[in-house]
C-alpha cells in the first residue's frame, strides 16, 4: 500500500534516512566526489526540506560545484534473491535544473557491466518524487 503499511519490518528490513550516517547500504567510502549529506537548512538552495517537509532532516545531494559528467553512489553487496527473499529499494528523489539523467543500475558479480534498470531525465522539476524498484538476481549484486 502507499503508506508502506504492508511492508514486513523485521531484522531483514532496513530503513535509511541519512539522519546519522549514510546507512548500511551506502558505506562511507562509496560516497564519491560530488555527493554531500545535507538538510534544507544548509543554505544551499532547494530543496528546503526532505520529502516529508522536514527542514532539519538530512538527505544526499549533488554539490552545486559538481560540474563533471557523472557522480555515482554504490551500495554494499546484496545477497541473491529468491521467491522468499526479495529486494525492494524505495527512494525519494528531487529533480532540479537537470539536463542529464538520474539512473539506477544493477551490477551482478559475474558481470563487469552495469545494467540500467530505471531512469528519469529532466522532468517533474522542483518537487520530490518517489520510486520503488524490485530486484531479482540469482547471484550477489550491487545497485
From TrEMBL:
Superkingdom of source: Eukaryota
Signal peptide: none
Domain MAM: 14-143
Pfam families named in the record: MAM
PANTHER family in the cross-refs: APICAL ENDOSOMAL GLYCOPROTEIN PRECURSOR, MAM DOMAIN-CONTAINING PROTEIN
Classification via InterPro entries: ConA-like_dom_sf, MAM_dom, MAM_domain-containing
GO CC term, one of those recorded: membrane
Record protein name field: MALR1 protein
Amino acid at each position: 500500500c502507499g503508506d508502506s503499511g504492508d511492508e514486513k519490518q523485521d531484522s531483514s528490513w532496513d530503513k535509511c534516512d541519512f539522519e546519522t550516517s549514510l546507512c548500511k547500504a551506502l558505506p562511507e567510502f562509496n560516497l564519491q566526489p560530488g555527493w554531500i549529506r545535507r538538510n534544507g537548512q544548509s543554505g544551499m538552495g532547494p530543496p528546503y526540506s526532505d520529502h516529508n517537509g522536514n527542514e532539519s532532516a538530512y538527505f544526499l545531494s549533488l554539490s552545486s560545484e559538481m560540474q563533471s559528467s557523472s557522480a555515482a553512489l554504490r551500495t554494499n553487496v546484496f545477497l541473491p534473491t529468491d521467491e522468499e527473499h526479495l529486494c525492494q529499494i524505495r527512494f525519494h528523489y528531487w529533480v532540479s535544473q537537470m539536463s542529464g539523467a538520474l539512473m539506477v543500475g544493477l551490477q551482478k558479480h559475474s558481470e563487469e557491466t552495469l545494467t540500467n534498470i530505471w531512469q528519469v531525465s529532466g522532468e517533474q522539476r522542483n518537487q520530490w518524487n518517489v520510486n520503488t524498484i524490485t530486484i531479482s538476481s540469482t547471484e550477489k549484486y550491487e545497485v
